[in-house]
């Protein structure tokens, strides 16, 4: 038996599979509404979820893999006790630290930006200078450490935003220059490839939540691609070589000897919800007709600014003229989003990624048959059903891979 533990923004999910990847048990704990995200909250949720599993399955676990939100970080002492607050994945207060990183980091580093875990690490060190800081740990690292009874290890995917070089597979010297000398070498975690065993435990090196969700779909070979039609539209494809283009919002995570390249547009479901309630969307969807295009050239955005497939902070939303017919208006937006997705795959190909040989779709938009048909007409590649929709399943697959 192999367990995947997913720490999402709203709770914890555990899925247990056997060596044939069949689900044998699962449990889910939801955080209380408005609960502050703390390590104690995560740990309590993990313990409660594990307690829901049959005892016989818990006793048979060969490997456990944890995934967590990308860029969520805290500092701890040698025993794993938190010495600072947690800065969550979307915390953008470290603007001054991000400027210092930008001055010395290579342009293709994943550590750029105020939400990177390296910027947050520097912010924590400067605002809590007197703590007994030993380890810098991401959300997944801390939970894995609690389960293993040892701390100080991480994985190549979580560490990308901490400045780790996935090509050279080492911490670059410029990262070490930013960290106080007396805290090295322990502060930066020992980095393992996702899906490799952690010595001295039954833990397996994990990944981020979005990559675990990608793996859960069954995508595993070069050219396998996944589109997430959620609040935004995110594209990921397995490539034989890394693709880095920060100016286009594109970077790559290492997956063994392959790479997961991708980017995310600001268009998506959040734009639809600016104009329609969920009930309206459900009522209008049956009347959409992918075989009768509206002819309208929309670029749906909530506000000015796009990051991928074109990086243009001044790009204006384009949703005029607006038809009086609400079905036509909705269809025009979905057609525009389909074109943006298509342009995203074109951009990735221009920069060295393969063209999708298969495409799986996850997220709320995957349940809209007309939207799926519009995309199929543009892409003209096999559209495959995802194997599973939960990140915890993808994490469990990594545990199987290790053994």
> What's the structural domain tally?
2
* Largest beta sheet: strand ordering: 12-13-11-10-14-15
Query: Could you describe the largest sheet, including whether it forms a barrel?
Result: 6 strands, mixed
The CATH architecture designation of the largest domain is 2-Layer Sandwich
Low-pLDDT residue spans: none
Question: What would your notes on this structure say?
Answer:
This protein is globular. It contains 12 helices and 15 strands. By secondary structure, it is α/β, with parallel strands linked by helices. A 6-stranded mixed beta sheet has the order 12-13-11-10-14-15, covered by helices on one side. 31% of the residues lie in helices and 20% in strands. The relative contact order is 0.14. The longest helix has 25 residues, at 326-350. It folds into 2 domains: 2-212 and 392-402, ATPase, nucleotide binding domain (Nucleotidyltransferase, domain 5, 2-Layer Sandwich), CATH 3.30.420; 222-384, ATPase, nucleotide binding domain (Nucleotidyltransferase, domain 5, 2-Layer Sandwich).
Write the layout of secondary structure elements.
Elements: E1 2-7, E2 11-17, E3 23-30, H1 39-51, H2 55-59, E4 63-68, E5 73-76, H3 95-104, H4 117-127, E6 135-138, H5 139-148, E7 153-155, H6 173-178, E8 190-192, E9 203-208, H7 209-216, E10 224-229, E11 233-239, E12 251-255, E13 258-265, H8 269-275, H9 278-284, H10 326-350, E14 358-362, H11 369-379, E15 383-384, H12 391-402
Parallel strand pairs: 1-4, 4-9, 7-8, 10-14, 14-15
Antiparallel strand pairs: 1-2, 2-3, 5-6, 10-11, 11-13, 12-13
């Amino acid at each position: 038996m192999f367990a995947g533990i997913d720490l999402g923004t709203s709770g914890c999910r555990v899925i247990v599979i056997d060596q044939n990847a069949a689900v044998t048990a699962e449990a889910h704990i939801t955080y209380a509404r408005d609960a502050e995200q703390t390590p104690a909250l995560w740990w309590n949720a993990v313990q409660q979820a594990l307690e829901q599993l049959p005892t016989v399955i818990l006793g048979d676990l060969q490997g456990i893999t944890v995934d967590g939100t990308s860029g969520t970080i805290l500092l701890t002492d040698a025993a794993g006790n938190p010495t600072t607050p947690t800065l969550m994945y979307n915390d953008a207060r470290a603007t001054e630290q991000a400027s210092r990183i930008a001055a010395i980091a290579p342009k293709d580093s994943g550590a750029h930006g105020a939400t990177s875990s390296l910027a947050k690490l520097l912010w924590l060190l400067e605002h809590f200078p007197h703590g007994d800081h030993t380890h810098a740990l991401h959300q997944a690292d801390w939970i894995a450490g609690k389960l293993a009874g040892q701390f100080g290890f991480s994985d190549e995917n979580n560490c990308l935003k901490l400045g780790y070089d996935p090509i050279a597979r080492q911490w670059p010297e410029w990262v070490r220059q930013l960290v106080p000398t007396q805290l090295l070498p322990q502060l930066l975690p020992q980095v393992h490839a996702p899906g490799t065993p952690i010595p001295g435990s039954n833990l397996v090196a994990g990944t981020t939540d979005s990559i675990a969700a990608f793996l859960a779909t069954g995508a595993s070979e070069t050219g396998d691609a996944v589109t997430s039609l959620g609040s935004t539209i995110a594209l990921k494809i397995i490539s034989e070589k890394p693709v880095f283009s920060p100016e286009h919002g594109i970077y790559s995570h290492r997956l063994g000897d392959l790479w997961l390249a991708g980017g995310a547009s600001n268009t998506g479901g959040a734009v639809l919800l600016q104009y329609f309630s969920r009930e309206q969307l459900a009522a209008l969807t049956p009347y959409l007709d992918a075989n009768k295009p509206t002819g309208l050239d929309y670029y749906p955005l909530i506000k000015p600014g796009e990051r991928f497939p074109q990086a243009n902070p001044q790009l204006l939303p384009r949703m005029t003229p607006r038809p009086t017919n609400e079905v036509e208006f909705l269809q025009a937006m979905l057609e525009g989003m389909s074109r943006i997705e298509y342009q995203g795959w074109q951009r990735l190909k221009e920069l060295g990624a393969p063209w999708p040989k298969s495409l799986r779709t996850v997220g709320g938009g995957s349940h809209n048959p007309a939207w799926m048909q519009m995309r199929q007409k543009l892409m003209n590649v096999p559209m495959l059903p995802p194997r599973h929709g939960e990140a915890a399943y993808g994490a469990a697959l990594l545990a199987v891979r290790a053994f």
